[in-house]
């Protein structure tokens, strides 16, 4: 069985890539550290540490029966791996799944050119995928139809929530520990509140309701921490549907 990977919905097997020899997935995340030197102080004072994007190098071989077929196949591979961009020329991250970890994915894009060395009927290629958010995440979203659940990943995650109101209320509240989201708006039975904490979007019955979000000391667009969790919801009889994608360093 060959070892390969899928990028943007297409697997390397489709191009007769038989050998993927190197996949560099370092543990943890790259960081940028800010430090300060204080005269007279013995040592360095740490100020902050921020996660930075990760690079995953991949080496593989393309095989063909003739040199001509090899060149044609190489162009097909280049087209497959090319970076997709929006109308502002901004790279768009696509799903990358390696065969040894089929339940997790990286979101990234090709950085730089494809280094290729041709030897008659095979070409040794080297590429670098840039992962802007340097975490691997579950391929499938976790769906929960109640206020309790578990984030089995290792880092906090954003979530999407659908709340169907069952009674007249002056507001809708969602609390998790010391974090809370309050929608200061009169609601009626059947109204549907949708919250996307990653996209910072709130709608009621499909209409933008961000102006009705109560501003607290902390951001209302909080994340679910690792481990078991339980939301407090007001009104308590509100029907809840929750989706999130677990992530790991």
Write the SSE topology.
Layout: E1 5-7, E2 10-11, E3 17-23, E4 31-36, E5 45-51, E6 54-63, H1 67-81, E7 94-98, E8 104-110, E9 115-119, E10 122-131, E11 136-138, E12 142-144, E13 148-151, E14 159-164, E15 172-176, E16 179-183, E17 192-196, E18 201-204, E19 207-208, E20 227-230, E21 232-234, E22 239-244, E23 247-248
Antiparallel strand pairs: 1-2, 1-7, 3-6, 4-5, 6-10, 7-8, 8-10, 8-11, 9-10, 11-23, 12-22, 13-20, 14-17, 14-22, 15-16, 15-21, 17-18, 18-19
The largest pleated sheet is described as:
10 strands, antiparallel
Query: Class by helix and strand content?
Result: mainly beta
Counting structural domains, the number is 2
Strand content: over 45%
The SSE order reads EEEEEEHEEEEEEEEEEEEEEEEE
Report on this structure.
The chain is mainly β. It has 2 domains: 5-134, Elongation Factor Tu (Ef-tu), domain 3, CATH 2.40.30; 142-248, Sandwich (Jelly Rolls), CATH 2.60.120.860. Helices cover 6% and strands 46% of the residues. It has one helix at residues 67-81, and strands spanning 5-7, 10-11, 17-23, 31-36, 45-51, 54-63, 94-98, 104-110, 115-119, 122-131, 136-138, 142-144, 148-151, 159-164, 172-176, 179-183, 192-196, 201-204, 207-208, 227-230, 232-234, 239-244, 247-248. The strands form 5 sheets. Strands 1, 2, 3, 6, 7, 8, 9, 10, 11 and 23 form a 10-stranded antiparallel sheet that branches. A hairpin with a 2-residue loop joins strand 1 (5-7) and strand 2 (10-11). The radius of gyration is 24 Å and the shape is globular. The model has no long low-confidence stretch (mean pLDDT 92).
């Amino acid at each position: 069985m060959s070892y390969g990977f899928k990028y943007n919905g297409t697997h390397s097997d489709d191009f007769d890539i038989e050998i993927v020899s190197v996949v560099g997935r370092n543990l943890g995340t790259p960081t940028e550290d800010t430090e300060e030197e204080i005269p007279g102080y013995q040592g360095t004072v740490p100020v902050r540490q921020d996660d930075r994007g990760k690079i995953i190098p991949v080496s593989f071989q393309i095989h063909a029966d003739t040199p001509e077929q090899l060149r044609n196949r190489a162009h097909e591979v280049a087209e497959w791996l090319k970076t997709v961009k929006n109308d502002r020329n901004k790279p768009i991250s696509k799903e990358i799944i390696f065969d040894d970890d089929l339940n997790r994915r990286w979101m990234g894009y090709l950085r730089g050119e494809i280094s290729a060395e041709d030897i008659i009927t095979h070409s040794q290629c080297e590429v670098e995928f840039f992962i802007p958010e340097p975490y691997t995440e579950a391929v499938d979203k976790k769906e929960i139809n109640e206020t309790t659940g578990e984030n089995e990943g290792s880092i906090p995650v954003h979530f999407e929530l659908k709340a169907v109101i069952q009674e007249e209320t002056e507001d809708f509240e969602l609390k998790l520990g010391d974090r809370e989201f309050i929608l200061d708006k009169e609601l009626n039975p059947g109204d549907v509140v949708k919250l996307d904490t990653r996209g910072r979007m709130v709608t009621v019955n499909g209409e933008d309701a961000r102006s009705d979000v109560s501003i607290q000391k902390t951001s209302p667009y909080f994340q679910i921490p690792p481990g078991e969790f339980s939301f407090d919801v007001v009104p308590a009889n509100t029907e809840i549907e929750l989706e999130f994608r677990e992530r790991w360093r």
